[in-house]
Amino acid sequence: MCLALLYPLGEMRRWLQQHVFKVGWLVTKNIRTTTILFYTLFLPGVILYEFIYWMMAGILNIRAERALSWPDAQQVAELRLNFIKLGRNVGAFRLAIINLAPFLVGTLVIWWAAFNVLQIDQAWAILEAEGLRGVGDALTRLFSAPDIYLWVYILFAVGNTMMPRWSELKGARILLIIAGLAFATLLVLGVADDFISNGLLDPFNNALNYISTVFVTVIIVNCLMTAALGTIEALIERITGDSATFERGKLVAISRAERIEQERVAAEKARKAAQAARERKPGTASGPPSIYRFPLPTPPAGSRDETISVRRDDERILPSGAPTASPPAPPVLPNLAPVAPPALSALPINSDDEHTDQETDG
Fold it and tell me: Checking phi first, is residue 119 left (phi over 0); if not, alpha (psi -120 to 50) or beta?
């Protein structure tokens, strides 16, 4: 479940960062000021991330230099958490541990706030017991927590800055190799099943449940912030008539009418592409030609209620025993007498046939 939640969490975080940057630009109309406001909104998460990053580098005896300064103006809606510079003597394995440390600490912070401050477990128990009828009681339980809005903001800031840099986790493969070798050793010794069932299964399941709860909490908080950002953005665009879009990750200023037209054109292209895909004929099969792939015409299907009757045009029936009619006589030409057929005795007899007959008689 944790892996299934990573993709929607990453897409939601990217969308939120873009629209936070867009709202900042709509308010200030200045890229540098927008960049400063962008980092300021996520300041609790930025501070926690960089502090844990710097502290873990010190624990691993890696030189880390603090480069605290105002962020440079940028048109890309992306948090560049590079305020701590590591030395050159860091290896891939230690670099992976340093990048995983902020993620683990951020997960613990969100889990502690969700269960001890917001008491999500009690709200969830109400929903399980009462179903949809308990939605109101569950929300009342959540919003009755002290400083609810402050903690929601902290969860939002930490949840959208705690993710590690995936390109710097290549050294973590060593941990997977070590775990694989240890598991193979346990299999050879014949104690792998007992060790996993009694020693690892329950802690592993609990860890997955905690991480899944943290991810779900972050997604819920992001949904609330999405609704708030969408409302603010729509009001500013309607009042000022200005808008912005992102092309290749960079902010491009346009008017609200131009943005609406772009969205309409994009939707029309998507509709035409979907219609063309539905009407596209299937490709011809490869291989030698065959009669089985020849498109034969088929007659149109008739209605089930249509009846077909067959009737003979000539319904005359010959009576039994009646003599058949003789063929008509040939026409007689005028002034000519009909010629009678010659008699058999008048026909000439072939001499060869006569000789043959005589030999036969002899």
Answer: left
The closest alpha carbon to 34, from 45, 46, 21, belongs to: 21
Higher pLDDT, 110 or 192: 110
User: In the chain, where are the structural domains located?
Assistant: 2-240, 242-277
Asked if pLDDT for residue 356 goes beyond 50, the answer is: no
Say how far apart CA 347 and CA 183 lie, in whole Å: 119
Structure tokens belonging to residue 145: 């927590």
What is the model's pLDDT at position 52?
92
Supply the angle between the helices 201-240 and 256-279 in degrees, to the nearest 10.
Answer: 120
Report the 3 state secondary structure along 140-181: HHHHCCCCHHHHHHHHHHHHCCCCCCHHHCHHHHHHHHHHHH
pLDDT at 38 over 80: yes
Q: How open is the CA angle 266-269-274, to the nearest 5 degrees?
A: 125
What does pTM read for this prediction?
0.65
Query: Which is more confidently placed, 87 or 112?
Result: 112
